[in-house]
Design the sequence.
């Protein structure tokens, strides 16, 4: 990916179903859960680098003993930072008191972070700031064990302002505008309610206050609480939560926009945003990791019982296709195949662009995430050549000479590592006038990988703004003197904002939007832009369900090809010698390659929740009025 889009968050949850002694005995350490959590978070570090957090709960502690711990970091290497802190605490405790070494019960009482229920989170913010206060997990504390709530999520609500107002109407006074606080307070409100009602009921049954506590834990119906809390949520979400006494949950939105997976055996229950994180860390097979159904919650009671319950009725499945194209690690068995298919499906367009001339064409990719689609693209080039070779050989008949055969078979797709990413360079870049020259060097090239006059095909997973292409990649590739540079995007054109967890909230950031705008100017149809703005304005008072995505009309007059051509023009840096062509995946190709993840609103404008239409409506108004702000 050449455009850094800050995106996504990753969740990990672990519940150890056996006493800690069991893990000490079997795996040599009572810190088994903490160690596994570290690995789970590292394996998902692709999902968030703005911050990371960890929380754990110890079951069955006596009053006066700490049972919840949390550590968060917004440092440069946040996962490393939190686990360095955790390690430090553990090692210091072990050094100071050597008798702890083999006494698991004492470890549990005196060392923080160790526990049976653990949650980890890596964050890229979509709402609020990047300071430590915005880092998950969030904590809602109370002297009543059951009312303690720890929440972390991969989510974005389109109606967080409205949800905030609802809380205020309920008489609450949330301490922050962070969206995670709003969601947590919403759950917390109904949790408080449920605990109070249960307590009343249990008292009526003749139990005293002390006896009531374990009974509340047993009877607390998390599904019911989540049902009430999430009634008005409009967004994409996977929300994880822990309750002070030891219940845990992971809840996924009704359209399955955000991903969630889980695994269970008699030792552990584990959940994560990505399947391979679970597979690798626990060495379990692909099939034993389940996807959490949309609208459902995985609920793990303190007593170890596990259930999956419907919370909100699932709607049409619209799992985010960007997860498959780019966000998730490509190590997932299905995603790996899907990315290769994305590369395969763009090949016919490439062939056209190079005029079937594979002999004078070099294939390459933008490091690192586009590598898998590159393999798919190259394999298709091989297939194409094989067919050609077959025809040539058959045409020459049985008397073909060794030389002829050799000449035919010698033609292979030319694949090279052309672009190199100098990752470290980015951090050095300052804001002064020398910036552009520095930016141009974020990528480097392999000299000699391309002959003068070759076509150079370079695949990327998507093109959002195209800034890096224009300022760095195309300039540096041009130094190799290709005749034509064909930039291929394994994803379709990004035309609409995301409002479900990816930080792409402004229309004018998208190069496809800029291209359509330029086409309106070329065609003298800028009146249309004003007309769309007026239509958007008229909708601001409508309820979400009534809002229509009129921004589609902005693109409607132009074909995808016209827009791609304009994008090539916009992204060609001044003075470039090579001809630049830009090829995008088609929407049909995307659906064919990723059949389970048909959520494609950023490409098509078809939002899976009503709030999406309001967001895109607002985004267009912001663009037209020149307001540089997020639309949600
Ligand atoms: N990418 C995400 O899932 C972000 C979660 C949440 N909206 C935040 O900004 O903290």
Sequence:
């Amino acid at each position: 990916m050449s455009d850094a889009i800050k995106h996504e968050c990753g969740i990990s949850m672990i519940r150890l179903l056996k006493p800690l002694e069991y893990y000490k005995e079997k795996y040599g350490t009572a810190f088994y859960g903490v160690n596994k959590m570290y690995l789970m978070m590292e394996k998902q570090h692709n999902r968030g680098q703005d911050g990371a957090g960890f929380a754990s709960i110890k079951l069955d502690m006596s009053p006066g003993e700490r049972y919840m711990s949390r550590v968060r970091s917004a440092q440069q290497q946040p996962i490393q930072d939190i686990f360095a802190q955790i390690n430090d605490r553990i090692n210091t405790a072990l050094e100071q008191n050597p008798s702890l070494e083999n006494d698991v019960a004492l470890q549990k009482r005196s060392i923080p972070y160790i526990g049976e229920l653990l949650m980890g989170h890596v964050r890229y913010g979509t709402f609020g700031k990047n300071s430590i206060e915005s880092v998950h997990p969030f904590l809602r504390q109370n002297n009543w064990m059951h009312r303690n709530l720890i929440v972390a999520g991969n989510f974005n609500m389109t109606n967080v302002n409205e949800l905030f107002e609802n809380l205020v109407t309920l008489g609450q006074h949330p301490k922050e505008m962070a969206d995670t606080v709003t969601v947590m307070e919403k759950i917390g409100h109904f949790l408080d309610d449920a605990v109070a009602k249960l307590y009343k009921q249990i008292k009526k049954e003749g139990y005293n206050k002390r006896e009531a506590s374990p009974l509340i834990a047993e009877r607390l119906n998390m599904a019911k609480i989540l049902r009430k809390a999430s009634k008005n949520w409009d967004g994409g979400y996977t929300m994880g939560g822990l309750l002070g006494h030891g219940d845990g949950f992971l809840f996924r939105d009704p359209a399955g926009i955000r991903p969630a997976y889980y695994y269970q055996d008699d030792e552990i229950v584990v959940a994560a945003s990505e399947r391979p994180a679970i597979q690798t860390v626990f060495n379990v097979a692909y099939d034993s990791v389940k996807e959490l159904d949309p609208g459902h919650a995985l609920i793990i009671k303190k007593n170890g019982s596990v259930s999956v319950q419907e919370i909100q009725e699932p709607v049409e499945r619209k799992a985010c296709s960007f997860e498959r194209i780019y966000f998730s690690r490509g190590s997932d068995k299905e995603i790996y195949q899907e990315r290769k298919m994305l590369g395969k499906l763009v090949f016919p367009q490439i062939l056209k662009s190079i005029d079937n001339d594979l002999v004078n064409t070099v294939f390459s990719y933008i490091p690192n995430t586009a590598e898998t689609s590159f393999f798919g693209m190259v394999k298709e080039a091989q297939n194409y050549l094989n067919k050609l070779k077959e025809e040539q050989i058959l045409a020459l008949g049985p008397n073909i000479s060794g030389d002829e055969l050799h000449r035919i078979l010698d033609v292979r797709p030319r694949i090279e590592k052309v672009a190199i990413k100098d990752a470290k360079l980015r951090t050095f870049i300052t804001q002064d006038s020398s910036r552009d020259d520095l930016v141009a060097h974020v990528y480097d090239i392999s000299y000699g990988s391309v002959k003068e006059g070759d076509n150079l095909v370079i695949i990327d997973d998507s093109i959002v703004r195209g800034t890096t292409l224009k300022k760095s990649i195309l300039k540096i590739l041009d130094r190799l003197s290709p005749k034509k540079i064909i930039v291929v995007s394994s994803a379709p054109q990004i035309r609409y904002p995301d409002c479900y967890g990816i930080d792409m909230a402004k229309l004018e950031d998208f190069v496809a939007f800029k291209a359509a705008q330029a086409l309106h100017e070329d065609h003298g149809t800028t009146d249309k832009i004003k007309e769309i703005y007026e239509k958007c304005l008229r909708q601001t008072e409508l309820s979400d369900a009534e809002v229509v995505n009129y921004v589609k009309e902005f693109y409607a007059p132009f074909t995808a090809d016209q827009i791609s051509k304009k994008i090539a023009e916009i992204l060609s840096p001044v003075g470039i010698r090579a001809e630049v062509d830009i090829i995008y995946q088609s929407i049909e190709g995307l659906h064919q390659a990723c059949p389970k993840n048909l959520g494609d609103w950023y490409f098509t404008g078809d939002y899976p929740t009503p709030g999406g239409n309001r967001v895109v409506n607002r985004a267009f108004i912001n663009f037209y009025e020149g307001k540089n702000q997020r639309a949600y």
